[in-house]
Amino acid sequence: MNSFDMTTKSPRTLTPVDVTTVQERVYQSLRLGLLKGEFLPGEQVSIRSLAEVFGTSPMPVREAVARLIAERAIEQSGPRTLRVAPYLASDHENYIRVRMQLEGYAAERAASAPKNPALVGALRRHNEGIAEALEAGDFDAALAGNQAFHFELYRAGGYPQLLDIISTLWLRTGPIVASARRDKALFERIFNIGVKIHNDAIDAVSQRDRAAARRAINLDIRSSHLSIRRFYKNASGGTDSAGS
């Protein structure tokens, strides 16, 4: 008898590769990149180049991009062409109005919760990080810090469904905020003002002042929107769109 009997070999114990896990990881990474402003409005992207960045086959990237197309964060601009959703002034204005309602409410909920020194401390650290990044000229870090500040605050509202909706809206507006990097003075002005307003929001949460928390977040959203709207209007010669 052969010393290596295939019929008596023990069952394999290898763990099957979960393709859906890879797809989810790629999706979440792309999503976070959009939220943090790592892509610009109208920027062209390709399945192949993204797959190379992630070190995966094109399939999980294609699935992740399909989800982002459904969320209107990425557009199919041609048979083989994808791009980040471009800036359209009228659409962005509507997104801002909705964001002010939802994020203002989320800030209210955070402020109405029992006093939470850990939350206040985390918000201060995020805001200080933004200020330090601006001082160092690290705009990517400032964008990431801004995203971290807002979502730290909104998570404290204890309403995950609301957080999901806000996150989807940020997918469409995050790249637009990031586009201000093309104008150094504008970017610094927007975010320096933002740091001051964030301090007001932190004070409101610390004092459990719901109205002040909503007011600060709404002012933060609106003030940056107005600056960016002027930037795009000047860049496009007064037309209603850019980034195409």
Which class best fits the helix and strand makeup?
mainly alpha
Q: What is the CATH superfamily label of the largest domain? A: GntR ligand-binding domain-like
Terminal-residue CA separation: 73 Å
The amount of helix comes to 55-70%
Question: Biggest sheet, in brief?
Answer: 3 strands, antiparallel
The poorly predicted ranges are none
Question: Overview of this structure, please?
Answer:
This protein is mainly alpha-helical and 244 residues long. It has 2 domains: 19-84, Orthogonal Bundle (Arc Repressor Mutant, subunit A); 87-242, Up-down Bundle (Four Helix Bundle (Hemerythrin (Met), subunit A)), CATH 1.20.120. It has 9 helices and 5 strands, in the order αβααβββααααααβ. Helix 5 (117-136) packs antiparallel against helix 6 (139-155) and helix 8 runs antiparallel to helix 9. The protein is globular and about 55 Å long. The mean pLDDT is 88.
Concise synopsis of the structure shown:
By secondary structure, the chain is mainly alpha-helical.
SSE layout and pairing:
Elements lengths: L18 H17 L8 E2 L1 H8 L3 H13 L3 E3 L5 E3 L2 E2 H24 L4 H20 L2 H17 L4 H19 L5 H23 L3 H26 L5 E2 L2
Antiparallel strand pairs: 1-3, 2-3, 4-5
Helix pairs in contact: 1-3, 1-7, 2-3, 4-7, 4-8, 4-9, 5-6, 5-8, 6-7, 8-9
